[in-house]
Specification:
Residues 150-273 form the Outer membrane lipoprotein BamD-like domain. The protein is mainly α and 277 residues long. Helices cover 68% and strands 0% of the residues.
């Protein structure tokens, strides 16, 4: 509030009080004139305004400090949450990899009894085409046969990790090499399935179809067979062979009622219907 404003507001009131005062010597009190008294009053009011403003500023500063401390605490909590999420993701990825390795060559019935669900396309950890993956021209490193490792667990794990990293061509080479080196491996069905997946994400659908069909024909009791049948239907869809896609997806529904692959097959058939195929 400016001095002129204070004077404008206070002066009429003060003069009114002075005029209504009955004491004859009020104007001469302490030898001060009316203007001097008005000046004193203005200074007093200004000091009170400054005090109030100072108090408000201090209050605002306290509130800002409290907000800053609250923000820092929330940022700390957010950092902890993100770290927990990273840890959970890494643990989940490790567990899925372990289940994938342990599930090789196991029949569908034994896989269900052990609580290990069969892998289904769309739930894998293989990054899709166009994702942020590092494309490398480095030749695939094929694991040499390990003495005492008749099933080629190390080679299979290496090929699977290569696929997860998005190095599709290297993964194809690695899985093909694995199948040739360990034809009797318990991981054979898994390797065959992921070989088809590697071709599929590389958009080589004709070859992918052939590889998925091998899973069904060569490993019919594997827990990969149902996922491969679903992928056959998906692959026909990508090839725009609508009749074959409907037939393949219908076969999944008939053979595996009440399962996840059946639900996915129905969803794809509904999608085809919406698209007019």
């Amino acid at each position: 509030m400016s001095s002129n404003t204070v004077r404008h507001l206070v002066k009429p009131l003060f003069i009114s009080i002075l005029l209504t005062t009955s004491a004859p010597g009020v104007f001469a009190e302490n030898g001060l004139s009316v203007e001097q008294r008005l000046g004193r009053l203005e200074n007093l009011l200004q000091n009170q305004v400054l005090v109030e403003q100072t108090r408000q500023m201090e209050q605002i500063q306290h509130e800002l400090t409290a907000l800053r401390e609250l923000l820092e605490a929330q940022e700390h909590q957010l950092g902890l949450i993100k770290q927990r999420q990273r840890n959970l993701y890494q643990d989940m990825d490790r567990r899925l990899n372990d289940l994938e390795i342990k599930g090789g060559g196991v029949s569908a019935s034994s896989g269900a009894s052990s609580g290990v669900a069969p892998a289904v396309s769309g739930a894998s950890s293989v990054p899709p085409p166009g994702s942020a993956t590092v494309v490398s021209n480095t030749p695939a490193v094929i694991a040499a046969p390990v003495v005492g490792d008749k099933n080629g667990k190390s080679a299979y794990t290496q090929a699977f990790n290569t696929l997860k990293e998005g190095k599709y061509q290297q993964a194809i080479m690695a899985f093909n090499s694995f199948q040739q080196t360990y034809p009797e491996s318990v991981y054979g069905a898994n390797a065959q399935y992921w070989l088809g997946e590697a071709y599929s994400v590389s958009r080589d659908y004709k070859t992918a179809l052939s590889e998925f069909q091998k899973v069904v024909s060569q490993y019919p009791q594997s827990n990969k067979a149902e996922g491969a049948m679903l992928k056959i239907g998906y692959t026909y869809y990508e090839m725009q062979d609508w009749a074959s896609a409907k037939t393949a997806l219908g076969a999944v529904i008939n053979k595996y009622p009440g399962t996840t692959v059946t639900r996915k097959a129905k969803e794809r058939l509904q999608r085809m219907k919406r698209e007019g195929h």
